[in-house]
From TrEMBL:
Protein name listed in UniProt: F-box only protein 11
Gene source species: Anabarilius grahami (Kanglang fish)
UniProt feature, compositional bias: Polar residues: 30-45
Ranges for region Disordered: 1-45
TM ranges: none
C-alpha cells in the first residue's frame, strides 16, 4: 500500500526523488510547535529527547532500528509528503517533531495551503498579527517561508458560519479529530449566541453565501470576518430587508467586522418605517472596526452607515460605500471615529454627512461621482478631513453650512459639476493646503455671513472663478496659489468683507481680483500678476482696502476703478502693465496713496469719464506714456506725488479734464512736465516742475488753468508755454533758470526739428506752405519758412506745439537746415492718448 501511494505521489509531486544517506545517530527534533491545540502528552512523547531513558544518569544515543532508519532516511520525500497529506494540522505538527527531515517536509507550504483552504477558503493567506488587524498577502512576496501555516496558527481558534456543514462536522468526529477548537454553525445569530455563551475568544468566520434577515445585534467585542476564495467581500453577503443589517451597541468597543458585503435592501424602499434602519448602525459608547466591507443600501430614507451618539467612535477603513439611495456615511450627535481609505461613490445624497457636533477623522478617502454633494457638514458638524480625493460630484465637492466648522487638509477637490467648496449660512471651517481645480463653478464659494479660513491651497484651472465671496461673506483667504481660472481669481461682491493676504493670483484668463456691488475687504501683501484683464477691478459702490500688494505684468490695467468704485489703494507696487497702472472712471473716487506705479507700457494713472480720486504721496515713474492722465470731465486731487523719469510727459490733462495738482514734484520726464489741452481747466498750486527734457508747462487748444505758487526751473525747452488763444490765471509762480533751447535754436537760425526730432513737440510759431501743398497735418518752423520756403506762398497758423515737417523730410522739398531727412508720419499736436480699458463686466 505504501509503495502504491509512493508511486502515485511521485508522478504528481514537484519534489525531485531523493534518498537520505545514513546518519550516524538520531537527530533531535524541535522542542515544541507553535500550533495551538497540540496536546501536552503528544509534545512530551515526541518533542523532548531529554525524557528518553538514561544510562548512569546521562543521556545516551540509542541504536537506530531498521524501521526507523527506513522511515526517517530512506523513504522518498514524495512518499512522505503523500502520507502527510492525509494528516490534519495537529498530527502534522506532531510529525514535525520526529526528526529534522520530517520537520522540513511537514512544513511544506503546499500541505498547509491545502489544509488552510479546506478550513478558511482563502486563496491568499489572511494574516492576523494582532487584535482588530487582518490583511491578505501574496505568498510569493512574504518574508517568511510558510505564510499558510503562520496564518493557520493565527486564525486557528474560531467559530465558522458555514450553512449545511455543521451537521457533517459534528457527525464525523473521527474525520475531524483535533479540531475541537473549531465550532460550526448554520447562522450568524447562532454563532453570536454560541460564542458569547461559551466565553469563546469571539472570532467568527462567515463563509461564502448570502445571509438574509438575520438579527445581528452586537454588544460584545466579537470579531466577525468573511471567509471565501478570491475577492472575499464579494462572496460573503449579509443583507436585511426589514431592520438594520448590523447594529453595534454598548459593549462592542473592540468588535471587528470585515471582508463582507453588507446590504440593507427593503422591499418598500421609500416606506417611512425604514427611516431608522441602515446597513450599519453604530450607537453610543462603542468603537468597532469595520474593515474591507462593501456597503450598499437601496432605502431612500436612511443612510447606509449611521454613526450616532456620544462615545460612538468606530474605525471604518478600506470599505466601499457606494450606489446607495440616500447618504453614504452619516455621523451625528457628537459621534466621532476614524474613517480611512474608503471608496465612497455614486450615492444619491451626500457621500459623507457630518451634523450636530459630529467630529470624525477622515483620511485618504476617495469620494466621487456622487449624485449630490461629496461631503456635507451641517448644523455645527465638524471633522478633520485629510488627503481625501473628492471629485466629479454633482453639487459641491465639499459643503459647509449652518455653523459647521470642519478642518480640511491636503485634499484634492476637483472636476465638480458645480463648485469645489461651498461655505454658506454662517459656515466656518479651515481649508489648508488643498488642491482645488477644474470645477465647473468657482473653486471656493463663501456667502451668507460665513467666515472660513482658506490657507495655503492651490486653486487653479476652474471653469469659472477661483474664490467667489458674495452675499455678506467673510473669511481669511491667505497664502493660496490661485491661477489659470476662466473668471476672476478672487471675486468679492454684495457687502462681503474678507481678508485676502499673501496670495499669488496669476495667469488667469480674466482679471485677478474683482470687487463689485458694494464689495469690501482688506486685500494686502498679495502678488497679482500676468492676468488677461485687470489685476484688480473695483466697481459699483465697492470700498476695499488694498495694501502692500505687488500688482504687475498684467495684459491690461493694474488696478481699475469704474462705475463708482471707491476704496483705498496704498503702499502697493504696481508695475509693468500693458495698459495704465491705475485707471479711474465714471464717478469712482478712490484714495490712492504711497504707491509705486512704474514700468508700465502705457501711462501710470489714467483718470477719465468723470473720474475722481485722491492721489497722494505716490511715486510714479518710468512709464511709457504720461505719469498721470486726466481727461473727459474728470476732477481728481493730486498731492505730494513724485512723477518722474517718464518716457513721455509728467501729467497730461485734456478733453475737459480738471483737477487740483498741489505740492507735487514733477521732474526728468521726456515730454512736458504738465500738458494742459482741449478745454481743460486744472488748478496747479505749489508744484515743482523741473529738470524736464522738454517744456515745464504747456497749455494749448483753448485750455485754461490756474497757476499759483509753482516753481518751474531747469527744463530744456523752457518753463511755461502758452498756445495762441490761451488765457491763464497766474499768481506767485517762479519760472527760472530754464535752458530755453527753443528760443536759442530760433535765434541761431536752426530748424526746430534739430532739437525735437519726431519725439517732442516744441511750442513756437508754426506755418504752412501752400506752394509745397502742405496739409492741416503739417507744420513748418519759422526758420525753415525763412530759409527753405523763401519766396513761397506761406501762411502763419498759430503759436502751438508741433515738430517741423520740413526738417523731418516729409515734404517735397528737402530741408536745407536740418541735414539728413528723417522720414516720419505727419505731425501730431498732442501726445498719443493712453489706451482705455475695454474690460467688460462679468458677474
Amino acid at each position: 500500500m505504501v509503495a502504491e501511494e509512493s508511486g502515485q505521489g511521485a508522478q504528481n509531486s514537484p519534489y525531485q526523488l531523493r534518498r537520505k544517506s545514513l546518519l550516524p545517530k538520531r537527530t533531535a527534533c524541535p522542542t515544541k510547535t507553535n500550533m495551538e491545540g497540540a496536546s501536552t502528552s503528544t509534545t512530551e512523547n515526541f518533542g523532548h529527547r531529554a525524557k528518553r531513558a538514561r544510562v548512569s544518569g546521562k543521556s545516551q544515543d540509542l541504536p537506530v532500528t531498521p524501521a526507523e532508519q527506513y522511515l526517517q532516511v530512506k523513504l522518498p520525500d514524495e512518499v512522505v509528503l503523500k502520507i502527510f497529506s492525509y494528516l490534519l494540522e495537529q498530527d502534522l505538527c506532531r510529525a514535525a517533531c520526529v526528526c529534522k527531515r520530517f520537520s522540513e517536509l511537514a512544513n511544506d507550504p503546499i500541505l498547509w495551503k491545502r489544509l488552510y483552504m479546506e478550513v478558511f477558503e482563502y486563496t491568499r493567506p489572511m494574516m492576523h498579527p494582532e487584535s482588530g488587524k487582518f490583511y491578505q498577502i501574496n505568498p510569493e512576496e512574504y518574508e517568511q517561508p510558510n505564510p499558510w501555516k503562520e496564518s493557520f496558527q493565527q486564525l486557528y481558534k474560531g467559530a465558522h458560519v458555514k450553512p449545511g456543514f455543521a451537521e457533517h462536522f459534528y457527525s464525523n468526529p473521527a474525520r475531524y479529530k483535533g479540531r475541537e477548537n473549531m465550532l460550526y454553525y448554520d447562522t450568524i445569530e447562532d454563532a453570536l449566541g454560541g460564542v458569547q455563551e461559551a466565553h469563546f475568544d469571539g472570532l467568527i468566520f462567515v463563509h461564502s453565501g448570502i445571509y438574509t434577515d438575520e438579527w445581528i445585534y452586537i454588544e460584545s467585542p466579537i470579531t466577525m470576518i468573511g471567509a471565501a476564495p478570491g475577492k472575499v467581500a464579494d462572496k460573503v453577503i449579509i443583507e436585511n430587508t426589514r431592520d438594520s443589517t448590523f447594529v453595534f451597541m454598548e459593549g462592542s468597543e473592540d468588535a471587528y467586522v470585515g471582508y463582507m458585503t453588507i446590504k440593507f435592501n427593503p422591499d418598500d424602499k421609500s416606506a417611512q418605517h425604514h427611516n431608522a434602519h441602515h446597513c450599519l448602525e453604530i450607537t453610543v459608547n462603542c468603537s468597532p472596526i469595520i474593515d474591507h466591507c462593501i456597503i450598499r443600501s437601496t432605502c431612500t430614507v436612511g443612510s447606509a452607515v449611521c454613526v450616532s451618539g456620544q462615545g460612538a467612535s468606530p474605525t471604518i477603513k478600506h470599505c466601499n460605500i457606494s450606489d446607495c439611495e440616500n447618504v453614504g456615511l452619516y455621523i451625528t450627535d457628537h459621534a466621532q471615529g476614524i474613517y480611512e481609505d474608503n471608496e465612497i461613490s455614486n450615492n444619491a445624497l451626500a457621500g459623507i454627512w457630518v451634523k450636530n457636533h459630529g467630529n470624525p477623522i477622515i483620511r485618504r478617502n476617495h469620494i466621487h461621482h456622487g449624485r449630490d454633494v461629496g461631503v456635507f457638514t451641517f448644523d455645527h458638524g465638524m471633522g478633520y478631513f485629510e488627503s481625501c480625493n473628492i471629485h466629479r460630484n454633482r453639487i459641491a465637492g465639499f459643503e459647509v453650512k449652518a455653523y459647521a466648522n470642519p478642518t480640511v487638509v491636503r485634499c484634492e477637490i476637483h472636476h465638480g459639476q458645480t463648485g469645489g467648496i461651498y461655505v454658506h449660512e454662517k459656515g466656518r471651517g479651515q481649508f489648508i493646503e488643498n488642491k482645488i481645480y477644474a470645477n465647473n463653478f468657482a473653486g471656493v464659494w463663501i456667502t451668507s455671513n460665513s467666515d472660513p479660513t482658506i490657507r495655503g491651497n492651490a486653486i487653479f484651472n476652474g471653469n469659472q472663478g477661483g474664490v467667489y465671496i458674495f452675499g455678506d461673506g467673510r473669511g481669511l483667504i491667505e497664502g493660496n496659489d490661485i491661477y489659470g481660472n476662466a473668471l476672476a481669481g478672487i471675486q468679492i461682491r454684495t457687502n462681503s468683507c474678507p481678508i485676502v493676504r499673501h496670495n499669488k493670483i496669476h495667469d488667469g484668463q480674466h482679471g485677478g481680483i474683482y470687487v463689485h456691488e458694494k464689495g469690501q475687504g482688506v486685500i494686502e501683501e498679495n502678488e497679482v500678476y500676468s492676468n488677461t484683464l485687470a489685476g484688480v477691478w473695483v466697481t459699483t459702490g465697492s470700498t476695499p482696502v488694498l495694501r502692500r500688494n505687488r500688482i504687475h505684468s498684467g495684459k491690461q490695467v493694474g488696478v481699475y476703478f469704474y462705475d463708482n468704485g471707491h476704496g483705498v489703494l496704498e503702499d502697493n507696487d504696481i508695475y509693468n502693465h500693458m495698459y495704465s497702472g491705475v485707471q479711474i472712471r465714471t464717478g469712482s473716487n478712490p484714495k490712492i496713496r504711497r504707491n509705486k506705479i512704474w514700468g508700465g507700457q502705457n501711462g501710470g494713472i489714467l483718470v477719465y469719464n468723470s473720474g475722481l480720486g485722491f492721489i497722494e504721496d505716490n511715486e510714479i515713474f518710468d512709464n511709457a506714456m504720461a505719469g498721470v492722465w486726466i481727461k473727459t470731465d474728470s476732477n481728481p486731487t493730486l498731492r505730494r506725488n513724485k512723477i518722474h523719469d517718464g518716457r513721455d510727459g509728467g501729467i497730461c490733462i485734456f478733453n475737459g479734464g480738471r483737477g487740483l495738482l498741489e505740492e507735487n514734484d514733477i521732474f526728468r520726464n521726456a515730454q512736458a512736465g504738465v500738458l494742459i489741452s482741449t478745454n481743460s481747466h486744472p488748478v496747479l498750486r505749489k508744484n515743482r516742475i523741473f529738470d524736464g527734457f522738454a517744456a515745464g508747462i504747456e497749455i494749448t487748444n483753448h485750455a485754461t488753468a490756474t497757476l499759483e505758487g509753482n516753481q518751474i526751473f531747469n527744463n530744456r525747452f523752457g518753463g511755461l508755454f502758452l498756445a495762441s488763444g490761451v488765457n491763464v490765471t497766474m499768481k506767485d509762480n517762479k519760472i527760472m533758470n530754464n535752458q530755453d533751447a527753443i528760443e536759442k535754436a530760433v535765434s541761431r537760425g536752426q530748424c526746430l526739428y534739430k532739437i525735437s526730432s519726431y519725439t517732442s513737440y516744441p511750442m513756437h510759431d508754426f506755418y504752412r506752405c501752400h506752394t509745397c501743398n502742405t496739409t492741416d497735418r503739417n507744420a513748418i518752423c519759422v526758420n525753415c519758412i525763412k530759409k527753405c520756403h523763401q519766396g513761397h506762398d506761406v501762411e502763419f497758423i498759430r503759436h502751438d506745439r508741433f515738430f517741423c515737417d520740413c526738417g523731418a523730410g516729409t515734404l517735397s522739398n528737402p530741408c536745407t537746415l536740418a541735414g539728413e531727412p528723417t522720414h516720419d508720419t505727419d505731425t501730431l499736436y498732442d501726445s498719443a492718448p493712453p489706451i482705455e480699458s475695454n474690460t467688460l463686466q462679468h458677474n
